[in-house]
Structures are given as C-alpha cells and as structure tokens.
C-alpha cells in the first residue's frame, strides 16, 4: 500500500500550508489563554494546570495519530524527520529554557502569540528570544565541542526502549491520564496551591 501522507508540498503550496498551520497554532494558543504569562507561570506554582493538560493532550493525540495512520498505511512514519539527540547540551538547554519559562512566563511559541496581540511582556520576551538566537550564533564556535557532545543520533523513544511505537504511545497515554487525574485533584480536593502558599495569597491574587 502506498502511503498518502506526508503530502509532498513545495513552492507556493508549502507556503500556504505553513501559514495556515502557523495561524491555527497561534489562534488556539491565544484562545486557550496561553498568551497570558500568569497562566503559564501558574503551572510552576501548582495554581494553574492548563499547560500540562493541553500540551499532554496534544502529545498523546499526535502520538496515537501517527501510530494509527502508520498501521493503516496512510502515513510513512519513516519520512518524518527526527532530529539528532545530544545529551549534555540538551540537558543544559532544557534547564535554561525552563528557567526562562519560570522567570518570563512564556515559551517561544506563547511569547509570539502574546506579542501578536500587542502584549508588552510578550513583545519583550520575543525580543529577548531574537537577541538570544543571534548571541548564541555568534558565541557557538567557542563551545562547539560541548554543543555537539553526547550524540545519540536520530533516536526515538521506542528505539531507545527497544519496543514498538504502539506500546510507547499507549504507555504515554496512560501516563497522561494519571497526570490529568493528579491535576484535577490538585485543583480540587487537594488544594495544592493553597496548602503550599497559603489561602491568603490565593485570595490576594484573585
């Protein structure tokens, strides 16, 4: 059976698809409330669990969709680009991104969404991202050895675990369901934010 996807897009069709997907991504981010730094930072204080719920849902839907379409022959999973993994620089980059996420209340995508609707904090954060890109590009030759250390090649999770893509997808789905349950309990019965920071702070932030 010949795979129908991914589409072989090039030229003008590629530009149209990219713009359409970018618009939809930004639209749903903004409508989901992710253009607010308070919502995003609230995840780290156990006050707002929307980020975990939405992002985990997106990951699980994408994983299950890829597995299903691959099994039916509609998708050639081998044609999907998998970037190379570099252990140490990605750990360092993850820590830096997480620190910036907590301090600024945005990730790159949500910062652009906030900037697009004129939020000054989003504009400032997006400007910092652009500055960081150019600063890294200029400084990278001085630490290129570290930037390319711990290479794993284009390794996927199911390859690393030595199992099937379907088993990994359903395993992640089970983890997501457990995480959703924890999030609901934390916002409800457990009142994790109030117990961690005090009810008076909860009231003061309303």
Protein described:
- With 206 residues, the chain is an all-alpha fold.
- It contains 11 helices and 2 strands, in the order H-H-H-E-H-H-H-H-E-H-H-H-H.
- The chain is globular and about 50 Å long.
Notable traits:
2 strands, 206 residues, globular, 2% strand, 68% helix, mainly alpha, two-stranded antiparallel sheet
Describe the structure in brief.
With 206 residues, the chain is an all-alpha fold. The chain is built from eleven helices and two strands, in the order αααβααααβαααα. The chain has helices at 11-31, 37-42, 50-72, 87-104, 108-116, 120-139, 144-147, 157-161, 165-187, 192-197, 199-204; strands spanning 85-86, 151-153.
Give the arrangement of secondary structure elements.
Elements: H1 11-31, H2 37-42, H3 50-72, E1 85-86, H4 87-104, H5 108-116, H6 120-139, H7 144-147, E2 151-153, H8 157-161, H9 165-187, H10 192-197, H11 199-204
Helix pairs in contact: 1-5, 3-9, 5-6
**Number of structural domains:** 2
DSSP strand tally: 2
- Tell me, briefly, the overall form: globular
Mean pLDDT: 87
Look at the helices and sheets and give the structural class.
mainly alpha
- Which sheet architecture does the biggest sheet show? 2 strands, antiparallel
N to C succession of SSEs: HHHEHHHHEHHHH
N-end to C-end Cα span: 57 Å
Oligomer: single chain
Helix content: 55-70%
**Major sheet: arrangement of strands:** 1-2
Number of helices: 11
Please state the CA-atom Rg, rounded to the nearest Å. Answer: 20 Å
The unreliable regions are: none
**Fraction of residues in β-strands:** under 5%
């Amino acid at each position: 059976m010949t795979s129908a996807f991914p589409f072989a897009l090039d030229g003008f069709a590629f530009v149209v698809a990219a713009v359409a997907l970018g618009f939809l991504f930004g639209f749903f981010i903004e409508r989901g409330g992710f253009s607010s730094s308070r919502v995003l930072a609230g995840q780290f204080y156990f006050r707002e669990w929307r980020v975990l719920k939405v992002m985990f849902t997106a990951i699980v839907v994408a994983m299950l969709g890829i597995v299903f379409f691959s099994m039916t022959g509609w998708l050639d999973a081998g044609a999907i680009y998998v970037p190379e993994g570099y252990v140490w620089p990605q750990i360092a980059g993850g820590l830096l991104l997480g620190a910036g996420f907590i301090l600024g209340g945005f990730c790159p995508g949500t910062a652009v969404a906030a900037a697009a609707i004129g939020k000054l904090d989003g504009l400032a954060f997006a400007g910092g991202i652009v500055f960081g890109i150019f600063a890294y590009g200029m400084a990278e030759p001085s630490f290129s050895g570290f930037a390319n250390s711990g290479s794993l090649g284009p390794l996927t999770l199911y390859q690393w675990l030595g199992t099937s893509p379907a088993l990994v997808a359903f395993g992640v789905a089970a983890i997501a369901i457990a995480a959703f349950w924890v999030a609901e309990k934390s916002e409800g019965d457990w009142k994790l934010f109030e117990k961690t920071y005090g009810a008076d702070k909860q009231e003061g932030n309303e």
